[in-house]
Every structure is written in C-alpha cells, then in structure tokens.
Amino acid sequence: MTLIDTELSPIPVTIVAGFLGAGKTTLLNHILSAEHGRRIGVLVNDFGSINVDAELINQVEEGMMTLANGCVCCSIRTDLIQAVLQLAERDDPPEHILIESSGVADPAGVYEAFLQTEIRNSVLVDGVITVVDAVHVLGLPDAEAKLARTQVSGGDLIVLNKTDLVDSDTLSNVKDWIREVKPTVQIFDATFGRIPMEVLLGVEHSHESSPGDHTSSAHHHHDLQFETWSYESSEPMNLGLLQQLLNHLPSTLFRAKGFVYAADKPNSRLLLQLVGRRAVLSVDRPWGDSPPQTRLVFIARSETCDFDAIQRVLESCKEVVKSS
C-alpha cells in the first residue's frame, strides 16, 4: 500500500492500456456515450477516433469535446500531464479521469509520469486497466508479443475484449496465457469493450447508512455478476494492520474505495483507492466539522469473498487513540 500526502482532494485517474486494435477506444466510446450520471474526463490519442452521436455533443473547441451527459473528452497533443491538468483545473472538473495509453506504450511509464510531487494535489492514479484482444493476442510476432506481455503485466485488471469472436478453446488458451504472465489478475470478458462502470471506476458510496452498518448486495451486468459490500466505523484504524489486510484480500475482490479514519493521522481524512492488487492511500483533507469515520466500499465477483471474515479483520484493525 502506498501512502501519499496531498493538500487537496486529488481526482482519481485510471490508465487504459493495451496493444493496438485491442479495443481501448471502443471501451472509451461506450463510456462517453452512456448515461451513468458521472462527470468523467477522457483523454485519447486520436480525437478523430471518438465516435459519439452528434446530438450528444454540447461543444467542441481547442481539442476538447463537452458532452450532454457531463463527460469531457480531450486529445493528448504533446504533453500528457498538461492535458490532465487542463481537465483538473476546469471550473467544473471531472470526478474521474480515464487516459487512453498509446498502443505501443508500457503502462508503467505512463504511471510513473504521475508520481511527480507537483501534480499530486490535482490527480492521483488509482490503477491500470489493460485491454487484451482475444482474437489476435496469441498470434502476435515476437517483438509485439513481448510488448503485449508487458502491458498485461502492468495491468491491475484485465478486460478480455472480442470474446464473441473466438471459440471456447481459444478463449481458454488466451486466459491461460494471461494467467501465465500475471497469475492472480482478475479477467473480465467483454464484447465491444462493454464492461460495468463498477469495474472501471468503482462505485459511489452512499452516506445514508449509520456507523456500524455492514451491508452487501448483489448486482448483475450482462454476464458478469458481482456484489458490493460496505463497511463503516467511527473508531480509528491502525494503518499497519489495515495494510496487512489490503495485502491479503482475495484476488476476486477487484476494487475498493472510500475514506479511512486513521489513528496514525487522526486529524486528516485518508482516501483509499484499490484496483486489483494496487492500493493507494492519500491524505485527503482535514475532517473539519465532519465527524471522523471510516467508510469503505468493496467490489468482488459474486459469492467469492467471505465478507464476514473481512469485517472481523477490519474490526481487529481498530485502535484506541491514546490521550497525550
């Protein structure tokens, strides 16, 4: 788990990686056109590749497209970081930013670009999602195959696209290849780049439940069944113990996000974002007039996680603040 100090609430950034033709742009087109109620900023390499119905476009100017559903699409010209900051500094900044990585890029290099201390107050990468072409990935020449392996290795979650175009044996072989590269990574089958928003962005946490409530609910999206589970507590958490829990979560639990009330930093609200095995905890802002409270939401494949056991471990992470 990485702990990062920030002065302001950074906008989460998700990098969408994958080899040429895997379906990254198709996936992003789907996000830009969907009615999901979120303001999402999308950065693409080729502005002309975005295929959005004309009636959904509110405004286009200087490489930026504003859409009726609240999303904003921008082209990456020469400076990726500058393009991201341009989005983050808008009067109505997005709630989440998605970046289309170049088809010939190592996502690790893109991720490292966001480790600069001067931009941590504005944006913070929460994870890398790699799109894999089920039809062509096993037939790539050696040099391209090496790059594809690197992209899979750098992904926190894998979207296996075009699964409708291959038979069951080929699909099984592709999944075996992915697991050979990265054994514990979660793989999500997709057609036309369509996957649940919860996989890409996580879920928005409801603030209506009271401290101590622990709930779970199952949701269905196409052929993917998953469930969300929330945890709330008004008692401070020991960060060392919480880190141990995050390092040992089941691999089928693919996203978690929320706020942490930490005994180590009792005056600051900490923001947790977990994608796959990558967990980032950032110092968000002072609690101010809000009562300190840990509020976390976990997303996993349905009936694969023992949330009662996770709850017991979370309870054991609580720590009494020592009076000075």
Could you write a compact summary of the structure shown?
The chain has eight helices and 16 strands.
Supply the key terms.
about 325 residues, Rossmann fold, nucleotide binding, alpha/beta, nucleotide-binding, 16 strands, CobW/HypB/UreG_nucleotide-bd, chaperone, globular, 2 domains, Hypothetical Protein Yjia, Chain: A,domain 2, hydrolase, nine-stranded mixed beta sheet
Folded structure, characterized:
Keywords: Chaperone, Hydrolase, Nucleotide-binding. This is Putative GTP-binding protein YjiA. Residues 226-318 form the CobW C-terminal domain. With 324 residues, the chain is of the alpha/beta class. The chain folds into 2 domains: 11-199, 3-Layer(aba) Sandwich (Rossmann fold), CATH 3.40.50; 205-316, Hypothetical Protein Yjia, Chain: A,domain 2, CATH 3.30.1220.10. Helix content is 23%, strand content 33%. It is built from 8 helices and 16 strands. Mean pLDDT is 82; it is low at 205-223.
